[in-house]
Specification:
Blueprint (H helix, E strand, L loop, with lengths): L1 H19 L2 E9 L4 E9 L11 E7 L8 E9 L1 E10 L18 E3 L13 H4 E4 L3 E6 L2
């Protein structure tokens, strides 16, 4: 009986560990009509406020396009989890999202919105979070 319980426990642990180790790809298409340096972050609920602790990130120059994606970025190996995508276009080369009066960004920015971006408050993680349970594509529009 002890051997049966031990074997059952070992199998249950193995299945739990393998479920946690599942990894998937994320393709992010970024639409932007302007040119500059694109900063794109894949964040989770624990690090969404600290860009230095992003689950994945990419920085690259883009040339704006009126139609179609200005950039397509693939993150091929993300573990199962809840994520959000944040992006901005640095147009003046200072490496920051420039903020104007009342905290309103002065450069194009966007997120993986569930619906539309909030207009009277800063975004919350829940506004742009999604579950990664299989490989998927996302669209982020910088405005």
């Amino acid at each position: 009986m002890k051997k049966f319980l031990s074997a059952t426990l070992i199998l249950a642990t193995a299945f739990a560990v393998s479920a946690q180790d599942e990894r998937f790809g994320l393709l992010v298409r970024v639409h932007c009509a302007k040119s500059g340096t694109l900063y794109l972050l894949v964040v989770d609920e624990f690090n969404y406020g600290d860009p230095k602790k992003a689950a994945a990130s990419e920085i690259l120059p883009v040339t704006g396009k009126a139609e179609g994606p200005a950039a397509e970025i693939t993150f091929p190996d993300l573990p199962t989890g809840t994520y959000g995508v944040r992006a901005f276009l640095d147009q003046n080369g200072n490496g920051n999202l420039d903020i104007g009066a009342f905290g309103i960004p002065r450069e194009p920015w966007g997120m993986s919105w569930k619906e539309k971006r909030p207009s009277m408050r800063p975004p919350r993680f829940s506004d742009y979070a999604f579950e990664l349970k299989e490989s998927r594509d996302l669209l982020v529009v910088l405005e």
